[in-house]
Specification:
The protein is mainly beta and 214 residues long. 14% of the residues lie in helices and 36% in strands. It has helices at residues 36-42, 103-111, 130-133, 196-205, and strands at residues 12-15, 50-65, 69-71, 76-78, 83-84, 91-96, 136-138, 143-162, 165-185. The strands form two sheets. Strands 1, 2, 3, 5, 6, 8 and 9 form a seven-stranded antiparallel beta sheet that branches. The protein has a two-stranded antiparallel sheet with strand order 4-7. The two termini are 19 Å apart.
C-alpha cells in the first residue's frame, strides 16, 4: 500500500504564531535546584518558535478492498464487502522538547495546502464503518468489479526551533477530507480524471491486461 506519487517539497520555515517562550534558565536567586514543576516547564518548547517542514509528501493509499467480483450488467454493486488492507492514524510523533499535541498538524496544514487540518482528530484511524460509509451502484457493463476505499495521505517530517536552537523534531501523518469510495469495472478504462485511489485499486485488484490498469 505504500506505492504512490511522493513529491518532496523544499524545506519551509513557518512561525508557530503563539506568544512567549517558557524559560529554561535557573531559578535565579540562590542557585538552588529547580522544583519538579520548574523542571517540567523547562522541558517544554517555547511557544513562539519556528517549524521547518521536510519531506512533505502526498499519496493516495488504498485502505480497504474487496476481492474482484464478476457480476452481470445491471447487478447491484457496493463497498459493503471491503476489508482492511492497511490502516493509518492521524498522529504526531515528537522527540525533544514537548510541543502542544495539535500544533504541528495545524502548522503542516498551512504549509501543505489544501490539507484539511485534522488536529482535533488525533488518534482517528481509517477504520471502515460499513454502516456509515458504504456506497452502492449498478453495474453498467458485465465483468469483474473492484470495490475499495482510499485516502489522500499527507506525511511530513519537521524540526522546531526556539531562536537558533532546534529543540524538537518529529513526524506527522494526516489526510485530506474523508475516505474516497471506489467501485470500478476492470474491463473499462478509467477516466483521465480518475483519482489516484481508483488507479491504485485497479492496479491491486484487476488483472494484468485489464483495461482499468492501462
Amino acid at each position: 500500500m505504500k506505492r504512490g506519487l511522493t513529491t518532496a517539497l523544499a524545506a519551509v520555515a513557518i512561525t508557530a504564531g503563539a506568544a512567549g517562550c517558557t524559560s529554561g534558565g535557573s531559578d535565579g536567586s540562590d542557585g538552588a535546584a529547580r522544583s519538579g514543576a520548574q523542571n517540567i516547564a523547562a522541558q517544554k518548547a517555547c511557544a513562539d518558535g519556528t517549524y521547518t517542514w521536510l519531506n512533505v509528501s502526498r499519496r493516495s493509499a488504498v485502505t480497504d478492498m474487496a476481492v474482484a467480483t464478476k457480476v452481470k450488467k445491471g447487478s447491484k454493486v457496493s463497498t459493503d464487502g471491503v476489508e482492511t488492507v492497511a490502516r493509518y492514524t492521524v498522529s504526531v510523533r515528537t522527540q525533544g522538547a514537548t510541543l502542544p499535541e495539535k500544533q504541528p498538524i495545524r502548522s503542516l496544514a498551512q504549509q501543505a495546502k489544501p490539507v484539511v487540518p485534522l488536529a482535533d482528530r488525533i488518534g482517528q484511524t481509517t477504520a471502515y464503518d460499513k454502516d456509515k460509509d458504504s456506497s452502492y451502484g449498478e453495474a453498467g457493463v458485465p465483468g469483474r468489479y473492484v470495490m475499495a476505499r482510499a485516502y489522500d495521505l499527507v506525511e511530513a517530517d519537521f524540526r522546531y526551533a526556539c531562536g537558533d536552537e532546534t529543540v524538537s523534531f518529529g513526524h506527522v501523518v494526516t489526510w485530506d477530507d474523508a475516505g474516497i469510495e471506489i467501485i470500478l469495472a476492470c474491463g473499462e478504462k478509467l477516466d483521465k480524471e480518475a483519482s489516484g485511489g481508483a488507479r491504485e485499486a485497479a492496479r491491486l485488484g484487476c488483472r494484468e491486461g485489464d483495461r482499468a490498469r492501462a
